[in-house]
Amino acid sequence: MPSECDYDSELKSILSISNSLERCITLFCFIQRSQMFLDGNKRVANLVANKEMIRNGEGILSVPVEKIGEYFTYLIHYYETGDMTEIKNFLYQNCIDGVE
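Given the sequence above, the corresponding structure tokens read:
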């Protein structure tokens, strides 16, 4: 897991991503894994990502109930490896709502 020392540089790097949807999804993944808070990291990640997605007209991020098990499989893989490729693909394909 990232240490407290990495937060500033990681967040600056994420916030420099020019594509707003890519930035929001990456921020969502990073906050979940970074464990910045003692509790509620996934909830905070969802709140922050959705605030930014709404602000940029990108809809919202919401894991469908029927996909929760699959989502947690990807999340565990991301937690264990630090590779967010698979979970980001899953989020793009299944969890963006409110835009056509």
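The chain has five helices and two strands. Try to locate this feature in the token string yourself.
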